[in-house]
Design goal:
Helix content: 25-40%
Distance between the termini: 48 Å
Largest sheet: 7 strands, mixed
Oligomer: single chain
Structural class: alpha+beta
Strand order of the largest sheet: 13-12-11-14-15-21-20
Shape: globular
Length: 650
Amino acid sequence: MSRKLPLADGETSRTACARALIRSGVDEETGELLTATALAERAGWCTELVAGMTGTLVAEHWNTTDVDTLASGQDAGGRKLPSNAWMALRRLGWTAAFEAKVNDRIVRMAQEQAGRALRSVKWRADLLAGVLAAWPADANKRTPQEWERVRAAIPGGEYLPSSIIRSRTRQITSFERKHGRLPADVFELEPTPRVPRMLLLAACDGQQATIERSATEPTKALLRLQLPTRPDPQAYRDWTWVECPITLPPTVPGCAVIHLPTLRITDRKVRADLAYTHPVPKAQRTGHTVALGVDWGLGTLLSAGAARLHQDGRITALGAGAQFRAAGVLAKQYRLRRISERLHAKTDHYARLADNTLDGKAATLAEEIRRVCERRSNLNDALAWAAARWAVDQAVAAGVTVIYLEDLRSMEAGGMGRTQNTRLSQTVRGQIADRMRHLAAEVGIAVVTVPPRNTSKHCPCCLTPLRHRKAPDRPTVSGWKWAICPGCGWQGDRDQGAWRRIAARGLSHQANTVADRASGTMVIRAVVDTMEAKAVITAAPKTSRTDRSKTGPTRPRTNRLTPRRREVPSPARPSGRTDKGPEGHAPTGRTRLPRAAHRHQGVTTISTPTNRHKPRGAALGAGFHLHAHAAPPKWAEPTPDLTVRMGSLS
């Protein structure tokens, strides 16, 4: 099978990963059919052998000298080290002893995994060394001069998010409180990392594993690999070839070239992380005329809209924009977080008691914490995919070629209360951005991050500082949701103005878009004042093809006007009923208003009644608030202020 991917003009190759489940296998030597449990057992024996060698290698070389040697890219003789981690470790003579009989390809997988772990720690080591070299007088708050010194001491620290520096500072402070001194390096601060149980088949060749796509069924592939027949193989005869059929996920295109996967054992099942390469349209850094601006929010997770750059330099908005609301999902996320915090508090209390009789309860709590963490992880992953898919669908529908996203990696919420600060800090912005880049690359749309400075503070039409109010019907009460411009008179939702600012800033600064050398992501690093002055949304010119001046009566000439109310009598009321229903509608016998029709119904930007009840919706899993303002249904008597309970999240 050819591994070379043919590309047409305007295309580039893209490597992605899809997850698949291996349900069975066949032992080629005996012809025995291996069930999912038997296959997971034999694959587990192999992963234990690899993990043992990997752990030994990492523990032996978990020090500054060896990590610097590996990261230098040269061996003792001055020759350049290979890019493959297992080849670099062999050039340096780093290997692990093992008692079982394994072939050379098993050792390769262990060396590859250990080399990747040791190479990845180099960045953390340089970061921690820079923070220690420019340690501030007050670790809780750095001065501007101290921020400049610490960024200069860190390689590439000029564009490093400040949140990363703060988190490392807190880690060092915790070590200092415990030991009474600062750590020497990252290897003293962090223990030897745990080794994940997996098989990196990409480090092997055809003597250990092969994969072939079916010529007749493009959705099928056959994986062949050698697995041990016992936990401690003593000879090569204890290794046999196993054929594993794989059903490819629908996300793998028919023209894609598949590569050897990474195998993991989870819940007694063999799961494969299948890498594949396929052609996609090439995304451009510049030359964009239609862009989608995306703004982050809390109640409204995403607000997005399209803008167009005209030939004369004007930027106009295309439509009123859209919003992605996930109040119910976020409420469940916050509820799980509170459950996790309570479980951790109980576990810490049992640890302080140091009573052997509580070991059983502590083990039960540990298992419950693991389950809650898995639920939170799955919920965050599903929310990230849904939000990213929504944003990319908006971009495809609007015909844009670039998505400009606000860069909030350095944002640390503060001053908004403990609950709001935690909610803002735990939003899955990073996961959403990664998934958005993944999905946008399939259709050739670039995703560029822009600086977040003043996107919600300044007017999108004239760049005048906005006045934020509580609601449009309360223009004198200070708030944060509704924005009013004292200059041009523009007013609107805070998030709706922010996506206009983001789209206009990206279109005006697109000449300064650069691609990060490490990650390949596109970013606009700084705001230029001359370009920012052009980043304004102008109103589209109003054109009319016909003269609409009034020359006659406005109402249509009809013999009889349409009645404003139904002239048929209301249905007869049942005997014994004294209530009154609206004209034309039969009474329903409801004593209270029904729940909201849609679970995603959010809170609109209007004022909240003064006699509001205590919001317990988040505690019950029903959204950010237990109520939402909506128009009264037909069977309810109209009231000045109507409160409707939101549907709870199942």
